[in-house]
Design a protein that fits this description.
The protein is α/β, with parallel strands linked by helices. The protein is built from 22 helices and 16 strands. The strands form two sheets. Strands 1, 2, 3, 4, 5, 6, 7 and 8 form an eight-stranded mixed sheet that branches. Strand 4, helix 6 and strand 5 form a beta-alpha-beta unit. It binds hexanoyl-coenzyme A (HXC).
């Protein structure tokens, strides 16, 4: 059923004519005009109940219901409610619904201002035409002008087919604004329905992308086109569902089971972010962490560097209330990236995860951590890097996939970061991975190490095999000789004080004191300033 067949909202002019009056100048009272305005407004706000019901049946909420969940109660200020398209042809004249399929405005989250749009799938499938796009441009401009986070709730069939190139132009203008705003205000994209075609690029340009299982789909070309071009039949979910983008492509930063949880988590994320790059993230009162001991840390992490453990348990011990928001939890789980607070101060935590692939760095892990470090640096979030890394993942697969290029992204991101940077070496830190995981050599401000630290070009066995190859080959008892050489190498090169004696580790700390030492370090570095040389921009190995 088309919009006009359902409950098409009469426009202001037809209402006025229906009342037999010619307008303000002909004796209309302010009360009468206000009453008409209110009636129209009420109709727009009510929307079409049948269409809303259809959304609900699909497990989705309407645009306005979503905004109610996202924003603090009663804070939404709508702009451009009365906007309508001016397209002609293909039946467009017959249907000119107010809002044009997107609700835009501002509100607060935990008392702090944000700008938002929420696409309304019940109007032209939430598709983006000229007027729809102009509304989004307006709130993007306001977000940038006021230094406020920008949040887009997407539920759309993509470019409005009937509006042709004006739809494409509308998208291009969004992408341009996304890029202008990058690193100036946080941008969050929430996918709550289809998000097809080029529209998907706005989510890729955002800092964080949320998706909801079962209802959200994100792809450049849908299943029909895929089948037509490749012959491959694939479902919407298998092509671009939340788990595909959360776990495989890395496009989705967060995946949730339902809209309520998803929007609540957006609120949690916003609670930890500065409004813009000139502000600091919201700080909570100190918890006295500088005197806090955590004996459990030594129980969580086995002394044997080959034994796995869950780095998330370490993170939970270090942060306030054990609360942290894991970024890309499902993608590249061999590295952990999380936002949390230590002693009330928001920090970005990057940690190797020995439980997955022994915590090696590979292509996805490098990309994931690099983008996270860039975000933290852009928005004044200090970095805490937890190191327990055997190295980069060796193999033709990795080399041919460009691990050099992708690993360089992480290296670049750390080298370029000017926020306070604290490195904690728990156990092993070998080779290039040691350097990349925020070593002092690339600019960490403070390096703390546990007594279990082993920092070297490579592990003792590998090292002995390389430098004593000939002796080992000639030895009668190679095993005994190897054991002796390994012991000597370890004693001389990888003992706990080795790096500290050379100033590459600032302190060797008791694991139980890690939270306290990091909190003290962050306090010490709070006023860090690091001017960068003037340049147009660096050339990140994208
Ligand atoms: C105009 C659209 C539309 C679109 C959907 N509708 N997409 N109208 N332009 N792009 C309309 C439908 O005609 C329908 O109108 C209503 O929205 C609901 O759509 P349904 O198909 O009934 O919904 P559903 O079955 O849930 O399917 C949703 C969908 C499907 C998967 C999104 O509508 C779809 O495939 N749409 C086209 C997607 C697409 O190819 N978009 C262009 C991508 S290219 P009525 O009146 O019947 O209710 C692109 C380029 C951007 O975006 C480039 C930027 C650089």
């Amino acid at each position: 059923m088309s919009i006009s067949e359902l409950d098409r909202i009469p426009d202001f002019a037809s209402e006025r004519n229906g009342n037999g009056s010619a307008g303000q100048g002909s004796g209309q009272t302010m009360d009468a005009l206000r009453e008409r305005r209110d009636r129209l407004r009420a109709r727009i706000l009510r929307g079409r109940p049948e269409a809303a019901e259809r959304q609900h049946k699909l497990g989705k909420r309407t645009a306005r219901e979503r905004l109610e969940l996202l924003l603090d109660e009663g804070t939404f200020v709508e702009v451009d409610m009365y906007r309508r398209h001016r397209a002609h042809g293909l039946g467009m004249e017959a249907e000119r619904p107010y809002t044009d399929g997107v609700v835009t405005g501002s509100g607060t989250i935990h008392g702090r201002r944000v700008f938002v749009y929420a696409q309304d799938f019940t109007v032209f499938g939430g598709s983006l035409g000229e007027a729809h796009a102009l509304k989004i441009h307006k709130v993007m401009d306001l977000a940038l002008a006021t230094g406020s986070p920008f949040i887009g709730l997407n539920d759309s069939g993509g470019a409005r087919i009937q509006e042709g190139v004006m739809s494409l132009n509308g998208y291009g203008e969004i992408f341009r604004r996304n890029v202008q705003a990058s690193g100036v205000i946080p941008q969050i994209s929430v996918v709550l329905g289809p998000c097809a075609g080029g529209a998907a690029y706005s989510t890729a340009l955002a800092d964080f992308t949320f998706m909801v299982r079962d209802t959200a789909q994100l792809y450049l070309t849908g299943p029909d086109v895929v089948e037509a071009v490749t012959g491959q039949r694939v479902s919407h979910a298998a092509l671009g569902g939340a788990d595909v983008h959360g776990g495989l492509s890395g496009v989705a930063t967060f995946v949730h089971d339902d809209e309520e949880t998803c929007l609540e988590e957006v609120r949690y994320l916003v609670s930890m972010l500065a409004g813009n790059n000139m502000e600091l993230p919201p700080r909570l009162p100190s918890r006295g962490a500088a005197g806090d001991t955590r004996p459990r840390l030594a129980e969580i992490v086995p002394v044997d560097p080959g034994k796995p453990y869950d780095m998330r348990l370490v993170v939970a011990e270090l942060v306030d209330d054990g609360d942290f928001l894991e970024v890309h939890e499902l993608w590249a789980p061999n590295v952990i990236c999380a936002l949390a607070r230590i002693d009330g101060e928001v920090v970005g935590i990057v940690g190797n995860q020995p439980m997955v692939l022994a915590g090696v760095l590979d292509v996805p892990a490098s990309q994931k951590a690099a983008r996270f470090v860039r975000f933290c640096d852009a928005f004044s979030i200090p970095l805490v890097t937890l190191v327990d890394v055997p190295g980069f993942l060796p193999g033709t697969d990795q080399e041919h996939s460009g691990i050099i290029r992708h690993g360089a992204k992480l290296l670049y991101a750390y080298c370029d970061a000017t926020v306070p940077r604290v490195q904690v070496i728990l156990r092993k830190a070998y080779g290039g991975a040691y350097i990349v995981m925020d070593s002092r050599s690339i600019g960490a401000d403070l390096s703390l190490a546990w007594p279990t630290n082993e920092i070297a070009v490579m592990g003792a066995h590998g090292a002995v095999n390389v430098i004593h190859r000939r002796e080992l080959a000639a030895a009668e008892d190679a095993a005994a000789l190897r054991a002796e050489l390994v012991r000597a190498y370890t004693e001389q090169l990888v003992h706990p004080q080795y790096a500290a004696e050379r100033g590459l580790v600032d302190d060797v700390i008791d694991p139980a004191d890690t939270r306290a030492a990091v909190a003290r370090g962050l306090a010490m570095l709070r006023d860090k300033r690091k001017p960068q040389p003037h340049r147009k921009h660096g050339n990140v190995p994208l």
